[in-house]
């Protein structure tokens, strides 16, 4: 059975893995609060764009991406449960897999994961397992969120690794994408 993960790109040097993103002052994330907010805003825009691709397979539109410690785009993912029939094919898991494959290692220390919807229990566990340092969240999930809403696995003192959480980035836009999806679904269900 083929392994569904991308192979690491061996010819790249460690510092050159992933896709360079145009940061204004060359540091990631920028030191000032306003500059950081602008970066989270832009990255969430990429995650939102990825989320909309899930609509083609009637998957719940959630998008995620992983940025390396030096601000390079290492992985992108969208919810593909319906498309693949895989219960673990959440946006965050797929973005983490791609990031690990492109960096050539499973430890994603110093990395930031950006996602349009608060991670579930599985994805929060994956963030801890991958040693991701920062999570940027769009909309909160009061029913199943596991990074602050229902549970908080990434800041639980018993967790092996703590993750900084930046919440509410483009929250209204991220929530609207989901609300439109579920409203349309209710419409077709009659
Ligand atoms: Zn999840």
For the structure shown, list the relevant keywords.
binds zinc ion; 190 residues; Cytidine Deaminase, domain 2; single chain; 35% helix; 15% strand; 5 helices; alpha/beta; disordered N terminus
List all distinct small molecules, including ions and cofactors, that are bound in this structure.
zinc ion
By CATH, the topology is Cytidine Deaminase, domain 2
- Architecture (CATH level 2) name: 3-Layer(aba) Sandwich
Shape: globular
Q: How would you spell out the order of helices and strands?
A: EHEEHHEHEEH
Radius of gyration: 16 Å
- Backbone structural class: alpha/beta
Termini, distance in Å?
A: 41 Å
Q: Class in CATH?
A: Alpha Beta
The beta-strand count equals 6
Number of domains: 1
**Uncertain regions spanning at least 5 consecutive residues:** 1-12
Question: Topology of this structure?
Answer:
Blueprint: E1 19-20, H1 33-53, E2 63-67, E3 72-78, H2 81-84, H3 91-103, E4 112-117, H4 121-129, E5 134-139, E6 164-166, H5 171-189
Parallel strand pairs: 4-5, 5-6
Antiparallel strand pairs: 1-3, 2-3, 2-4
Zinc ion binds at residues 90, 92, 119-120, 122-123.
